[in-house]
Amino acid sequence: MKTAHGSSPVYLDHAATTPIDPAVAVAMSACFAARADYGNASSNHIVGRRARAAIDTARQELGLLLNAQPQDLIWTSGATESVNLAIIGAARFRAHRGRHLITMTTEHKAVAESFDALEKEGFEVTRLSPGVDGILPLSDLEAAMRDQTQLVSIMHVNNETGVIQDIEAIGTLCRSRDVLFHTDAAQSVGKLHIDLEALPVDLLSLTAHKFRGPQGIGALYMANRPGCRVAPLLHGGGQERRLRPGTSALHQIIGIGVAARLAQNRLAENLSHVTTLQARLWRGLNGVSGITRNGCAESHYPGILNISAEGVEGESLMLALEPLCVASGSACNAQSGEPSFVLKALGRTDLEAQSAIRFSYGPETSRSDIDLAVKLYRSAVSRLRTIAPDAAA
Ligand SMILES: *Cc1c(COP(=O)(O)O)cnc(C)c1O
Fold this sequence. Notes:
The chain is an alpha/beta fold.
């Protein structure tokens, strides 16, 4: 693929979606090629059993990545569906005990809008703001808890800033109050070490295409504990313990299984690679005047770097950066033209939020990709500032 500049795109938008791993694509193609050998996992014949075996293998592979029991994983179409099932499903399942729920203001829209939907059903939702570093103070969460509180949903890694919340401390607090804890881990699964045997997490949402798997497949982890249960959103069959019925998407499930195995094998290596890249990128940009790093430098996934620059407008900057593929603010807000609500929650002004660029990179990003990003960013910022000198005012 060539851009208008005639050069190949340099893809620094891994937080939106990652390139699929070639080995995942091969495994999925093999499944298509041998379709007659697989079939419908619900059928009680040889071909159906083969499909079931392939699905069991994938569930084990994902279970190994998370140190979770395979039977505690429910296949879904991705993190959006997992989040809906976790939040709406758990709230409805526990509604007879109480109707108060807690989340925070910097969550992904899948979470925010699931809570909006529950408010229309008569649930009461508290939305906590993080500090300027993006981190939710535990004491604020504790203060917001009531006898009626049934569910807390706080994301693991933020998709815009990379900020990491302390899900262990949050989960421990929730357990001590008999409140369910859900975390949207779409940005951390396959990238950060997650041990669900050790972590006090009841529900966890993930999606394959954020860790080099295919789009359209994800999972919900549901701990095998009393009271931890969701009411299904879909009806129609016995698949996935009746919690998510519908014919299992075999090729997708094979894809997420292979992606999970590869992510597990390369977790440390990949993390150290993006750490090196982040240091290089920040070192390169640090000298540019009037730039701020959004988020928290300490509790931070190093594969995402979000930067505001005084006196420039993010959308123009993004176009000026071609052939770099980056996000301005958030990919999810790009159509609306609104400043990112996540950055505003961190105390950024409209202008600061509008000037934000999110760089996100992964295992196949090279040092020279980062060097190109630094070069293009520096020249684009100074060019845009010359064109619009009073935008900084
Ligand atoms: C990408 C993402 C989602 C949605 O994942 P889909 O696969 O598009 O459903 C949800 N939450 C976060 C934090 C994400 O980054």
